[in-house]
Design brief:
The chain is of the alpha+beta class. The longest helix has 30 residues. It is globular, with a radius of gyration of 23 Å. The N and C termini lie far apart (46 Å).
């Protein structure tokens, strides 16, 4: 190799070394993530960078960092377009830590361009594409680094993939260390404060459904949705009669521990709330380390109630291994849970309604179901908040 061929690699190596050092500095000072993300986007060849550290159970550990100043764009993404991102649906069942995902890996450019995410969201800021590296993925936590490409930069290519592969492991380690430090701080708080800090509704119940403790999320649920659940005579009573009977039966079993409920618990569909299905998961508290939670309250079970979401990769693993669903079929099931109707799924995925219905027909055949509501119940059964991949 000629000496002239080697020279361009030297400043790039120095740039990479400096960038890696800045990434690890975020462990000490997380406030520097925005500046570091700006440097990452320059190195990768992108216009904007987003780092999401999401913990579905312990939401106080969740974080969202961006490389730019545009609060309206961020708010629009979080409130509307996060769920409409077709890459999010298409990657269910395919998420692997450290894997770089380009849109070209998952769908045709024409499909992507037809999606609402591109037409309504990316285009508004002169963006055309996203490249993503999944840094961490469990049943309840996911850390993702995304970079957006401008119209001038075009669709992400193999050079973008290579550069993300170079820095991805370092971002993952820095994020993991930061999450561990935050976990130690959380563990130092009292149990009551910890439960109150969690975003979902949590009830600690005895064998007769008497409420021994409820966190702030549970109190909000009771106030906002009295038709879904209420406390009557000190006992938690689901509004749905079938859910009420099932809860009573499960609590009796909970006293016998994990042998009766299993370590992942039992899921109960409570009610539809504001367009979303409410699912409750009952976990026994009479076994192992979970006795430390039950002790002060004489509880036999913890009930977690939250809006049902497609829990990747736990749900995807079940649908793939037990029913043989393809990645595209898994994406359609995720769409049913999160959007409901065929037209909405088609718009998000850039498909025709006829194509979505064709996938549904195959899904019904493989799972032995005949209605979309049955598929929601199927996913609810895999939605334990303690499940780990």
């Amino acid at each position: 190799m000629k000496a002239s061929d080697e020279q361009p690699a030297q400043p790039r190596l120095q740039t990479l070394s400096t960038l890696i050092g800045a990434i690890y500095d975020t462990v000490i000072n997380p406030d520097t993530w925005s500046d570091v993300l700006a440097d990452i986007t320059d190195f990768v060849g992108a216009a904007r960078g987003i780092l999401i550290l999401e913990d579905a159970i312990e939401t106080t550990k969740s974080a969202f960092y961006i490389s730019f100043t545009d609060p309206d764009w961020v708010r629009s993404y979080l409130e509307t377009y996060l769920l409409l991102n077709p890459m999010r649906l298409a990657t269910f069942g395919q998420v692997q830590a450290g894997k770089v995902i380009l849109t070209s890996d998952l769908m045709e450019p024409a499909e992507y361009a037809r999606s609402r995410f591109v037409k309504e969201f990316l285009s508004q800021r002169q963006m055309v594409d996203l490249a993503v590296v999944v840094l961490e993925a469990t049943a309840t936590t996911i850390t993702v680094l995304s970079v957006a490409r401008s119209r001038q930069q075009g669709i992400a290519d193999e050079d973008v993939r290579h550069r993300l592969e170079l820095i991805g492991p370092h971002v993952r380690r820095a994020a993991t260390i930061g999450r561990s430090l935050n976990r130690e701080k959380l563990a130092a708080s009292t149990l009551s404060d910890t439960l109150d800090a969690l975003d979902g509704a949590i009830f600690l119940l005895d064998g007769q459904a008497a409420v021994l403790h409820s966190n702030r999320g549970a109190q909000s649920l009771l106030a906002d949705r009295p038709d879904a659940a209420a406390i009557i005579g000190g006992r938690l009573r689901p509004g749905n009669l079938q859910a009420r009977d099932l809860l009573d039966q499960v609590l009796i079993q909970a006293g016998n521990g994990d042998d009766a409920l299993g370590t992942d618990g039992i899921s109960i569909i409570f009610a539809a709330a504001k367009g979303k299905t409410l699912v409750g998961t009952v976990i026994s508290l009479v076994n192992g380390s979970r006795q430390t939670i039950a002790g002060p309250y004489r509880a036999v079970a913890a009930l977690f109630v939250r809006e049902l979401q497609f829990d990747s990769p736990a749900s995807a693993t079940v649908l793939k291994s037990h029913y043989g669903l393809t990645p595209r079929e898994i994406a359609v099931v995720a769409g049913i849970v999160e959007f409901g109707g065929v037209p909405q799924i088609a718009a998000v995925m850039g498909l025709t309604s006829a194509t979505v219905r064709s996938h549904l027909k195959s899904i019904f055949l493989k799972t032995g179901t005949s209605r979309q509501a049955d598929l929601v119940k199927l996913v609810a059964g895999t939605a334990s908040p303690f499940r780990r991949s």
